[in-house]
Amino acid sequence: MDCLFCKIAEKEIPSDLIHEDEFVVAFKDINPQAPVHFLIVPKIHIKSLDQISKEDNALISHIFNLIPKLANELGIENGYRVVNNCGPDGGQTVDHIHFHVLGKREMLWPPG
Ligand code: 5GP
Ligand code: ZN
Q: How far apart are CA 111 and CA 92, in angstroms?
């Protein structure tokens, strides 16, 4: 399948990897929107949040348990933002589900 994040997960395309386990990879965003900006990406191809099912509960839970651990390891001390862009109106540009984690600056709200 011609999917950028599948290729990054399989190391066909290099990335600045910060974590890997059986279920996910996490790597720095190529176009960071904050001093710390990384992505958590499941190894299995799921197109978007809109496509998840109950079978993915353990995976989603794993990702959200990992987020504070990685944020802490990267020295984010004063809070952070977790973002999932879903579909065209959500601003999704890579059609393989991923969660952004942004930190080390104050975030704006509403996001626009
Ligand atoms: P989306 O817009 O789908 O929520 O997020 C896609 C993210 O992937 C963007 O923040 C973009 O900068 C990042 N991105 C796109 N291509 C690459 C790449 O080849 N390597 C890395 N590390 N990040 C990428
Ligand atoms: Zn994929």
A: 14
